[in-house]
Write a structure and sequence with these properties.
Pfam families: UBD. By secondary structure, the protein is an alpha+beta fold. It is built from 4 helices and 5 strands.
């Protein structure tokens, strides 16, 4: 058996990450508005706690394709609670919550021609 105790969380880091399920914003938005929302989130998120390097890793993962995102969170020591990255923790137990709009596009995104 050994003394696993609170180390049971270790296998949670191996959760395979995936994009969030399809979602709809409260109103149809343009890509520019989505980009603006994302910028505002990433600019303010670190002020709510957690470590800047973890926020940086989560941003890089959110903006990368899935296999690269997996490598980023694994190497940063991020503990993935929800496979879509909406809830993560660092080794110290600090919680990081990501809104779906930084992870994927809404189904009602206005495609500008």
């Amino acid at each position: 058996m050994g003394c696993a105790g609170s180390r049971d969380k270790v296998d949670e880091t191996s959760k395979k990450i995936r994009k969030p399920k399809a979602w709809k914003h409260s109103e149809a938005i343009t890509r520019a508005q989505l980009t603006q929302m994302r910028e505002e989130f990433w600019d303010t998120a670190p002020h709510y706690g957690g470590r800047k390097e973890i926020w940086d890793a989560l941003r890089a993962a959110a903006e990368a394709d899935l296999s690269l995102a997996q490598a980023i969170v694994d190497s940063a020591g991020v503990i993935v609670q929800n496979p879509d990255l909406t809830v993560c923790y660092d080794e110290r137990g600090a919680k990081y919550e990501l809104p779906k709009y930084v992870l994927s596009e809404p189904t009602n995104l206005i495609r500008e021609s």
